[in-house]
């Protein structure tokens, strides 16, 4: 982009980071649940799958991918507020 | 909703589940607060300053529609009819979304209108504008109330909170973020909601498939159960349409659902179109519905399949219960297909995952209501207040008006939620109402966009008579004068509205004076210079993967393959 010099990276508020935060926290909590606090009875109830663990790991991977994406392609905000084009 | 209450649906949520739920709501409010800092004009508030990237608006486009009817209703349909339910996605949504992106979006985005009624104003003048603006605003308030009530009744069933507490709490949360951050907050939350819904439904589907022994196991058990193997193929879908003949069934699906109903809904419903108008360039606006079509196309796998699994594994719904329900009788267990998803969650998910699943369900209800509110406040402020009541005030006056209107609309929605609570089948009724307004609107739009002679008078007369025709069909079917099978009544009603609108519009056009061609540039296809309809292909719009036409082709190809497989 030619006018990259006149832009700066957006601050904390990138919706991708909010999504990553939610998925990361959810993933972490249920991974821990799956590792230590899901009873054999509950695992049997979910057809023998420790779904807390697997879904937790899946969400952590997803959150990590979103963080990487945000790092690689940050939002650029123009310094000057744009008028009507 | 008393039918729901008869089965035991109380979920065994514990402290961890509540913590996960609370964390979600904290983020939702946080987004509202953060989005507020970006709001400095009414355009920021109502259309996010036309600044959002296409993947955000594309996911919001889908999430705004992923409300109560979609998640609960489609899984219920899955339990009842099986794979033919996928037509609501593959025939009833994807083609219309592609059409919106490829053909209609250049006019919406290119003419810089701020709402669908405003397009009516520029093309057909004030009477059509007012008819469209008022009917849209009214429908949104009624639908927001119904969404609110459904949300509250699910919270009541799952967690045991009183209905009025959940209604007010949910209304306050939705109001806080939509009034603070406007459309940006609603859209960002819709994107977040989309991911929570997927995070809730995908693990549920996986566990469910394990439970029945994979896809083969599901095929075996559905074939052996009531309804039979017919439920495994999407065509011809006789059970869904209620037509005995295969030919009529396919015809009904393609023209009734696929053409009139779905094109009417997706291409003229401002709740959806508003999301595309908020994107940052013509290219992004055109890509919005097309990007949305990708998840839409795959949604059946995490909505309908859990429904089908519930129909064969959940004790309250399987076997004799399903047989009784298919006959239109009460199941011995007292459950209905609407409970499918909740019962499956209860049976399969451990604490932890359960909290996320509840968050996902509540997210989908709130997505629907926030979408209604954010489109209502735009249409009311721009198309009713600014156009007819208080003209020519400074912009910050309308920004304040938007916030006040959002609050007033929320209070009205609480009112309509309590009206909704007195009707048992309000959702069906509202969907029917919706097709009254959208089918004629679509006819008027298509004529108006491609036929420059069509006159302003024809615009509003066509709308009014089209709606009248749909209402007449509805009344005939309701009173039993005309016996229409299954979902036939709304298909025929929409068809009648469409045909009557076109015939009346053409007749009135030849009897009245057209607008001068100079006033129609940018609004009618033949009078608009081709360059202004094109989008830029440089900078952030460059690259083959950002080409709307190519993306639409990919979606279409995958949809056709899916139709052949299932």
From TrEMBL, chain A:
Organism (species): Prauserella muralis
Please indicate which superkingdom the organism of origin belongs to: Bacteria
What this protein is called in its record is: Uncharacterized protein
UniProtKB/TrEMBL annotation, chain B:
The yes or no answer to whether the keyword Transmembrane helix is present is: yes
Q: Does the keyword Ribosomal protein apply?
A: no
- Highest taxon of source: Bacteria
**Localization:** Membrane
How this chain sits in the membrane, per its record, is: Multi-pass membrane protein
Give the keywords, sorted: Membrane, Transmembrane, Transmembrane helix
Task: Write down any Gene Ontology CC term.
Answer: plasma membrane
> What is a single molecular function from GO for this protein?
D-glucose:sodium symporter activity
Alphabetical list of Pfam families matching this protein: SSF
CDD domains referenced in this protein's UniProt entry, alphabetically: SLC5sbd_u2
Under InterPro entries, the record lists: Na/Glc_symporter_sf, Na/solute_symporter, Na/solute_symporter_CS
Q: What does the sequence similarity comment in the record state about its family?
A: Belongs to the sodium:solute symporter (SSF) (TC 2.A.21) family.
What's the name of the protein?
Answer: Na+/galactose cotransporter
Natural source organism: Prauserella muralis
